[in-house]
Amino acid sequence: MYQALYRKWRPKTFSDVIGQSHITDTLRRQVAEGRTSHAYLFTGTRGTGKTTCAKILAKAVNCEHPVDGDPCCRCEACQGIESGSFLDVLELDAASNNGVDQVRALRDEAVYSPANVRKRVYIVDEVHMLSTPAFNALLKILEEPPEHLMFILATTELHKVPATILSRCQRFSFKRIAPADVAARLSYVAGQEGIPLTHDGAELLSRLADGALRDGLSLLDQCAAAGGTVDSAAVLEVLGLAGNLQTARLMEAVLGRDAQAALLQLDELYAGGKDVGAVLGELSTLTRDLLLRRTAPKGGDALLSGGYDGAALDRLGKEVSGSRLLYLATTLQAALAQLPLSANRRTDAELCLLRLCDESLSADLTALEARIQRLEEGAVSAAPRRRDASPSRAPERAPRASKPSPAPQEDDAPPFPLEEPPMPEEPGERVFDVPAEPAAPVGQAVPPAQEAPAAKEAPPAVPAGGWRELAEHCKGRLPPMYRAFLDMCTGVVEAGRLTVYAADELTLGRLDNDRVRGVLQEACGEPVQVLFRVGEPPATSPEENFKHLLQFGSQFDNITIK
Known about the structure:
Blueprint: H1 5-8, H2 21-33, E1 39-43, H3 50-62, H4 76-83, E2 89-93, H5 100-110, E3 120-125, H6 132-143, E4 149-155, H7 163-166, E5 170-173, H8 179-193, H9 199-208, H10 213-225, H11 232-238, H12 244-255, H13 259-271, H14 276-295, H15 310-316, H16 322-338, H17 345-357, H18 365-382, H19 466-475, H20 480-486, E6 489-494, E7 497-502, H21 505-511, H22 514-524, E8 529-534, H23 542-553
Parallel strand pairs: 1-4, 1-5, 2-3, 3-4, 7-8
Antiparallel strand pairs: 6-7
Helix pairs in contact: 2-3, 3-4, 5-6, 8-9, 8-10, 9-10, 9-11, 12-13, 12-14, 13-17, 14-15, 14-16, 16-17, 16-18, 19-20, 19-22
């Protein structure tokens, strides 16, 4: 009768266990010196050797002729325990025997001396499945067992085991087996079984095993049943991973921001019987591989999932930034987390693909960063040559002396002229009437102002609507990446200077450049300095605003001053 490879090649001694030397060396030394404990707790992921080491330990403590802590596997005790004919060594499944009645029966039976061996051993697998009353019933005998009794508990979810149980056991943590160790063991088993396993096939199987040697042996058994040489192509074909090519095509559409092609590819997979959750899961795995390949191109092969070779990953992620891959990964993880609660899984999967293709549909900060980076790359490639008249940016952003220039002519008037500097205040009270419409049309040059007074405590702000109109005019002459930042600023004008107050450092960093400065200067139409600051503009009192309005209105002839 045929026996599965993972059962046939199950380790019989501690020296046969792969990748857990930090545990097997300690257990072998305890057995050799006779210092074994009455309770052990083995933790770790599936297929790492927890139950196997528990059976080896049960044989070692009862072996009649141990060899340096290892069981001899030839005496009556070792053979009886291996075959399961000795009832003094009992393996229990806590998933199906998790009630308090089963634990009470076990406790009542454990007080009797063993019939065939020196120690009665109970191996309780998946112990975290025991109920709370069952754990409480196990506490007393686990704390003070008879000399002939030993408990070996195994679990994959340590956090579910009560602290009262943990404190009474020696705990050993089994780690995932390295892919190189799994590949070496698979090659050895294949050689003993006469299976034509190639080196690349063994490496691919070791990565697909995900640190579990039992999974690797099961995959090898499945691939060998198909016949022929077991290489990487045969592994992908037998295990159904050839469908990863469709996932790769879907990823190409996402990376190319082709939403139509992505939706059509998803519809093809859905029509072929593929679950949309599985599709998003494979996309998430592929995104992880692309991110790892980009982060660690030389030493990260052992971290890959194994479903895609390095050449395909390099081709897919050749022109993709790390921030874009991070956005894809977080979006896919969020969609997968919400998918079990969805009323229409296919619709949610399609919405997820749309967000992946177009970052503007997401409000995530990572998406915003990816969009800004994309706009910056487009602006750099399409940016016009810098104007010679634009002032250069100083490292300290210090004010620069403005060059004298004649007043603009009527034909060359800017669309949004700056206000003239305040007029000196004359003695006596004055009353003014502001006309409903301005005396001069917008853009017409005004007479030169009188001599400016001494510097005021705070410069007057641009009148209501002035900065907004100026910003709206500049938006049409700037790339899209600058438009949102202009809305977060406030402009303040004084003689020969326009100060733009940004809301934060990010806004300042985006706007403080020669291109934006040149557009603002051209919009003002005067030889004016453009400075950028962070914060709010200086507040002005109502009296100062009133004086400024009086001084500004006195230069128009049709305004009557009484």
